[in-house]
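Quick one: examine the sequence and fold tokens given here and explain what the tokens say about the fold. Here goes:
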Amino acid sequence: MLDRIRRVLDPYILLMFATVGLAALFPAEGKAAPVAGAAADAGIVFLFFLYGARLSPRAAWDGLRQWRLHLAVLLSTFALFPALGLGFKAVASASLPPALFTGVLFLCVLPSTVQSSIAFTSIARGNVPAALCAATVSNMLGIVVSPLLAAWLLHTHGVQLSFGEFRDIFLQLMAPFLAGQVLRRWIGGWVLEHRTVLGFADRGSILVIIYVAFSKGMAEHIWRQIGLRDLAVLCLVLAALLGLALCLTWLIGRRLLRFPVEDEIVLQFCGSKKSLASGLPMASVLFAGPQLGLVVLPLMLFHQLQLIVCAILARRYAARPEAETMAQSPKPATAAG
């Protein structure tokens, strides 16, 4: 029983919600608030510097030969999801507090995950090199595309993003990312060699960002604005969003584009996921006010939901017979597009 719980619940997710509880009990207030804020800003810079040092542009460009697959992933991430977000606006926006639904819309413009997309593709016996390329390109483009999409999509929801916020995006996200890319030639090997230790460090940075975000909400008493009904509605909206994304990417990959099953897996796992690691720092820059805790809550819940559902889906794909894989896979020339 405990093994099943561990497989479903990522310990890191539990740590994140424990951090929310810590912020509720002991929020950073008074003189501690600017210190915690500076620590969160430093964590954001560190995170995106590491992303730049880790991501290999050469691997991304080499993988673009499967352009139909990568274009499908990008369109799912940056076009299908925003379209679904606008659709839910017409149906569910009146049922949620504005800050929570802003979080849902913000979630829709984020890039795909890297680590979990590749891991689930590997478990499902999919095209791992293509998943690596698709997730890498999504995250590289997301640093620029996500804030622009957020400005457009949130404008339709009455949220205005100023030039100053885009300047902060460049200084806190793009500049350290580019610095990591430039220095990757000299430090890339060291970063890969110490990836376990650095992994703890970047996850720790995200926990600091969560703590500061929810501390701001506690200081302004914004949690009095939501109740159990709001959380229930939010969970239903997020479940519907993920379910639609998984169904549509499956239909597009198998029925419309007729991908081999290995590439269909890539489209499902890379095209239906949203990056917590990129989204939390970006939200901290774009939504610096007391509403930040509510804005990032949909992303945190969606992240846990996508891990549970995709883990189940990956096991189902992995259980398919080898003969079925061969039968569903067209010739390599066709697959390359």
Summary: The chain has a mean pLDDT of 80.
